[in-house]
Amino acid sequence: MRVSIELKSRLSDTLASAAGEDAAQLVFDREYDEGDCLVVTADPGATLRVQLDPAVPEALLFLPEGRMTYAIPRGEALTAYAPFAFRGTRHMAYACAALPFEETQRRDLARNALDLPGGTGAFPHVHANAETRGESVFAARNVIDGCRANHGHGEWPWLSWGVDIAVDAKITLEFGRPVTVDGMGIVIRADFPHDSWWPEATLVLSDGTRQVFSMEKTDALQRIYIGKHTITWARIENWVKYDEPAQFPALIAWEMYGQPTDK
C-alpha cells in the first residue's frame, strides 16, 4: 500500500511531500501559514497510525476513502493544544499502515487526538449540538484526545466538552464502519466548586439501544458496562445536572471499548 503525506497551502499548492510503501515520514522547515493543511493518503479502507506533530499523540485512524485532510490549527484553535504544538519552523509528520495486532486488539475505539470540528475524513470523529461559546477549549473533540486531566478548565491540558448550559446537549461519536463494543469510560471535569456534575445520562446506540447510566461526583475514570453491541455510532443525551448552585458540568473524556467488527 502506498502511503503519502503532503503539506498544502490554502491555494492547494503542494509545499512539501513524502511517500513510501506502507509508510511516509515528512520533515520540513517552514512556519505554518493560515490555511495550510496536511493531507494523508492511502488505500480506501486503510487503518493507519498517524502523528502530525511531535506534541500531539499518535492516533490509530480508519480512512474509509483513503484520504485525510488535517487543517493546521491557527489562532484561537491552538489553545486546545500543548503550547509548543504546530509552532516553530521545523515540523515532522508520519503515517504508516497499522500492524494486524493493532487492528484486532480490544482498545479504546474513540481515541483520536487528531480529530477536528467538522471532521478530517478519518475516524473516529465526534461532534455535538452545543459547545460553550464556540471556544476550542470546550469543543467536543476534546473528549477523545486521550487526556484525562480534569482539575482545571479553560486551558490546556484541562480541555473539555462544555455544554454551554444547554438542557438538550447531545454528543455523538462516529466510527466510520461497524465496530463491536462492550463498555465505555467517562471522566467528568472535577474543577470543584466551579463545576457541577451529572448523576445520570442516556447512551443511545445505532442498533437502537437506549441505556440510562449513572455517574458519581469523582475525578476518577468511571467504567460503564453496556453489553455487546455492533454499531456505527454512539450518542449520549439527556444529561441530568445535579441540583446545586454550580452551573457548569463538563465532560473530559469519553472512551468506547471494543474492536472493529470485521477483525
Description:
This protein is mainly beta and 263 residues long. It is built from one helix and 16 strands. It has one helix at 100-104; strands at residues 2-8, 14-21, 23-29, 37-41, 46-51, 59-63, 67-71, 90-97, 107-108, 125-128, 161-162, 171-188, 200-205, 210-214, 222-240, 250-260. Strands 9, 10, 11, 12, 13, 14, 15 and 16 form an eight-stranded antiparallel sheet that branches. A four-stranded antiparallel sheet has the order 2-1-4-7, with no helix packed on it. Strands 3-8-5-6 form a four-stranded antiparallel sheet, with no helix packed on it. It is globular.
**Beta-strand segment tally:** 16
Instruction: Flag low-confidence runs.
Output: none
SS element count, helices? 1
Summarize the amount of helix as a percent range. Answer: under 10%
**Mean pLDDT value:** 96
Q: What Rg is obtained from the alpha carbons, in whole angstroms?
A: 19 Å
The helix/strand order is EEEEEEEEHEEEEEEEE
β-strand amount: 35-45%
In whole angstroms, the N-to-C terminal distance is 19 Å
